[in-house]
Design goal:
Shape: globular
Distance between the termini: 40 Å
Largest sheet: none
CATH architecture: Up-down Bundle
Radius of gyration: 17 Å
Order of helices and strands: HHHHHHHHHH
Helix content: 55-70%
Number of helices: 10
Number of domains: 1
CATH topology: Ferritin
Strand content: under 5%
Length: 230
């Protein structure tokens, strides 16, 4: 695991402001592949399956959370699109993974009954110290879980801003990885899946950008930064 990933994890653990959520969500997802394989190495079929599946499950979970927290009808409509499309894509991906003898993440990942929610790094992050940081090497999506935990603590317009900003960041990196997969993977079934899923991801990205421009701010994280002490 590279140092940048660990620093981002610390940001989420130690910072209570939403700015920590925003930074971790934006940067960590953009670098999730690099964090789990050596720099310069080509994207593997297993890496793509893992990244795409977990990313889809996280989008579904966050969008279900959005339906509970937002009162904005546009945001609700977008969240419903996320749930429908990412759920369908993951069903197709799971079937391909089974056919190709690749490992597919647990289907309850990021669900309410996901066992990872009981991990002490999530339940009591304030107690992390010393060698416990090494546990992160066995929990590659830790920062994503921590960002979700933080997102649960906000609501209203603030939630909408961070949710929309996160969707833009997530789908920007997802489009990039799916483009790479559609061109470079040796597994033809996965290449075809990536190529056929790209139009949906690009549509999601544009929808998120449009709503982010309408309801967000030029710097959503700055809105969450507390004013300096007087």
């Amino acid at each position: 695991m590279n140092m940048k990933r660990i620093v981002l994890n610390k940001l989420v653990v130690l910072a209570g402001a939403v700015v920590a959520v925003n930074v971790a969500w934006a940067d960590d997802n953009a670098n999730s592949t690099a964090a789990m394989q050596p720099p310069g190495m080509p994207l593997t079929s297993q890496q793509f399956v893992s990244d795409a599946a977990v990313g889809g499950m996280e989008e579904v979970y966050l969008s279900q959370l959005a339906l509970e927290k937002t009162t904005n009808e546009d945001v609700k409509n977008l969240a419903n699109h996320m749930i429908k499309d990412h759920s369908a894509a993951n069903k197709k991906l799971e079937k391909i993974a089974q056919d190709e003898n690749l490992t597919f993440p647990a289907t309850n990942t990021f669900a309410a009954d996901d066992a990872n929610w009981s991990n002490p790094l999530l339940t009591h992050p304030e107690n992390i110290k010393g060698a416990q940081m090494l546990m992160m090497t066995n929990f590659p999506y830790l920062a994503d879980y921590q960002a979700v935990q933080q997102l649960k603590t906000i609501s209203g317009d603030q939630f909408d801003r961070v949710y929309l900003d996160g969707l833009v960041q997530d789908h920007t990196s997802a489009v990039s990885e799916f483009e790479s997969a559609s061109q470079s993977l040796s597994d033809e079934k996965l290449k075809k899946f990536a190529d056929k899923t790209l139009p949906t991801l690009r549509k999601h990205l544009q929808m998120a950008r449009d709503l982010d421009a309408k309801y967000g701010t030029p710097n959503a994280s700055a809105m969450a930064t507390p004013p300096p002490a007087q």
